[in-house]
Amino acid sequence: MKIDPEQKSDLSAQIAKAIRDAIIAGRMIVDERLPSEAELAEQFAVSRPTVREALKRLAAQSLIRTQRGAFGGAFVNRLSYAEAYGQQITTATLLLSMNDVSFDVACEARYALERACAPLSAKRRTADQLATMRAEIHRQSQPALSDEAFCASDVTFHRTLVDGAGNPVLSYQLAGAVEAMQPLMNMITFTARSREAIVALHTRIADALETHDGAAAETALSNLEAYTLELGRDVMNARAAKG
Amino acid sequence: MKIDPEQKSDLSAQIAKAIRDAIIAGRMIVDERLPSEAELAEQFAVSRPTVREALKRLAAQSLIRTQRGAFGGAFVNRLSYAEAYGQQITTATLLLSMNDVSFDVACEARYALERACAPLSAKRRTADQLATMRAEIHRQSQPALSDEAFCASDVTFHRTLVDGAGNPVLSYQLAGAVEAMQPLMNMITFTARSREAIVALHTRIADALETHDGAAAETALSNLEAYTLELGRDVMNARAAKG
DNA sequence: GCACACAAAATGTCAGACATTTAAACGTCA
DNA sequence: TGACGTTTAAATGTCTGACATTTTGTGTGC
């Protein structure tokens, strides 16, 4: 990890790439300290501000963390699940909002992924997770709940369902799919009747998980998908009718 | 989008967060130009290098792009699927390599997700995609193929299967799961016999997609998962026996 | 042996300058 | 009038040098 070929511009991007590649390739291990900014500047033959811009790029991706003071510096960061979740959610949310992804497509993706972990969740969900889901269902049946709070509870319910699979990699992958849908869901005004229907389907899902019946959970999720799609279409039609 | 409360340190992180929030909240739209670095410096009452560090953070997340010259500057970037794929793959790869995720867990997640799009792919795969899969199967049956090339072909096969679902959001979500597994798969030495078994399973998947039989595709994927798991265990055992 | 002060090393921040790139505005010439 | 080169201005990219701040290790004095 030394040189950047004198080709196209933007030195800080080149330097960031060189360091990033070293980390990905395993040439730098977790918690290893990078050379100081002054040393890096000398190594790459650039000035310190340029090195700093490169380091900030890496920090933005959670690849490194910095510490001030003596014996401080930049260290290779262990990418935690929590940080990965956060990035995943940010990226997925922006992807959806900036590429006019239709409600249908996003919905299909989300429920396809959720169904994938339904059998695993039916097998492994803890009593605690089941209790959380029941509690959220109870909250969702409170008529006084605002639409935003209803959506937030919905997200928690589905996150718990996903976490029930007991596979952190799966949870990480699905975090984006579930959370990124929330802004789209927030556009829906939930009537008392639609809330009732959703709560009924959530109950079916929870029942299926309680009895370790993966197939039933999948079926209930499919029904929930169909119903969500219907609600979304109503909103779109109402909006189109208005102008 | 102006002020950052004078609380904890790292001005460039605070400024980056302020701008990022504005973009996520939709207060800045795609292709909108940010104020120049000098103007931002004045707005936030910091120096230009500090502003630049903040902008580089955002650039690292593909949230903005910069253009030099007159009427250049920083513009809100439309997050393309391609960029999102790239970030997703980088993050997923690092997550797996830095958190000693077991082969079993990664494998389970990958195949659970792939099964999720099997029914959709069976319904929608194009003739072109089917041809690509057949071609990769043919390549995989060439005995002269190196292990790395075999793995690369495997990735292409599965990516095509996923893309066959015709849902870009799903493709984006699964890019990480499929590609991040490659380093783990690359550790496996594929014998002639195991290659034969994998090719047979790939053929069963392609056949199922050809006849639009989603259930058969799911079953074949489950069998492939079981076999992959077996291969992985053999490698682990051989490694444990050695040292 | 302990508390305190000090020094050293590193990041964080600033100011000012120069280099480079880019497109618009301008002017010249057919 | 119109096409084409030139100038110019605005912006990012980079460098230099300095100072501020934070943190840790160390040494002094009691």
Gyration radius of chain A, to the nearest Å? 23 Å
Q: Looking at the structure, what is the overall shape of chain A? A: elongated
β-sheet strand percentage of chain A: under 5%
Low-confidence region ranges of chain A: none
| Main sheet summary of chain A | 2 strands, antiparallel
Give the % helix of chain A: over 70%
Number of strands of chain A: 2
Give the neighbour order of strands across the main sheet of chain A. Answer: 1-2
| C-alpha end-to-end distance of chain A | 58 Å
Overview of this structure, please?
The structure is a homodimer of 243-residue chains. By secondary structure, chain A is mainly alpha-helical. Helix content of chain A is 71%, strand content 3%. Chain A has helices spanning 11-24, 37-44, 48-60, 81-98, 103-124, 127-140, 147-163, 168-180, 182-186, 192-210, 214-242; strands at residues 64-67, 73-76. A two-stranded antiparallel sheet of chain A has the order 1-2. In chain A, strand 1 (64-67) and strand 2 (73-76) form a beta hairpin. The longest helix of chain A has 29 residues, at 214-242. Chain A binds a DNA duplex (30 and 30 nucleotides) through helix 3.
Describe the structure concisely for a colleague.
The first copy, chain A, is mainly alpha-helical. Helices cover 71% and strands 3% of the residues of chain A.
